[in-house]
Queue: 2 jobs
Job 1
Amino acid sequence: MTEKKDNAAPLQKALKVRARAKSKKPAFVRPESWRYDKFAVSWRRPRGLDNKIRRKIKGWPPGPSAGYMGPKLCRGLHPSGYEEILVHNLAEIHSVNPVTQVARIAHTVGKKKRVQIIAEARKLELTIVNAKEIKAAPEEEAKPEEAEKAKVADKDAKKKAAAAKKKKKQKETKNKKPEKKTKKEAE
């Protein structure tokens, strides 16, 4: 634990330097994206022989380079200063060190397992970066009652629609006039 306190001051300084560098970094846009609608704005590396951005010609937008990098000490860290660990299951949540690391639940993890991981992280006093509050038990109890009410209402609506359709057909048959036969059909 004393290691964390010793490293805290340089790490905090490095995080501030990284934030300052990021604020000065320009938005890198794809070359000629302002000229053609078919090009998206998202960055693509210029590869052409005469490309002005690749050649760093004055007056053209800048391209990414090593000069925009943040300090080596805080590269790849979460903005809070902790290292992010991707978690897929309960076994992986136990390998997270709460002093230097935070957990991020993978996007492929389902709702059921996500609830278990969040509960286990609370027991271990771990921080989860992308934890959303999920109510598991109360919703499951309420759903069957609501589903039954919806089914009953749906059946009633179907019955009413069928009755209205039947009445409409009966009116059409009453209002129909007998067709007159032509002379050829009469013979």
Job 2
Amino acid sequence: MQIKTAMLLFVISITIGACKKEKDDIGSSTRNQWDGRYRMEGTMTDHSNSAFGWLNDTYLYTLQTSGPTTDSLVSNDLSFPGIVIGNTGGGITNATYYSKFGLIITFDGSTNKVTSVTNYYGQPSTSGRSAVLDPTGSNSIDPATKDIRVKFFMDEVGIAGHRATFDVTLVYLGSRP
């Protein structure tokens, strides 16, 4: 009986040990090469409402892997996908964002290019907003610095033309914890 119990405990401990993950292994294989921490710099113009504009270049973001060649742009301040902008209406400047508008960026690592952007919340989202890559932009990745340049539009149902234009650089700060 003691031998059977000892054998059973040995088999259980081997099985449990084989199922454990190494601490360093958690999540490391699920991140693509663009996943990381960034500061966003650039310009933004709202063609429909001049009270909205670029607030400043101090806001921090993370690119979080959503697929082998895609990442979601998540604002550290908002804690969800979205882009911090300014509301300067009536002389008051405060941080805000467009509801239901956040980016999923698609990359081509072999050409160091951004190939598309889509709205995280749908094309269009329930607020009628879509993301569209502007082909006149650099839309590229600097392999030396890992900085990402991307120019895109926010379109909105019911507004003729593009609602807003963003021309930004995501300045690479390091990997995510």
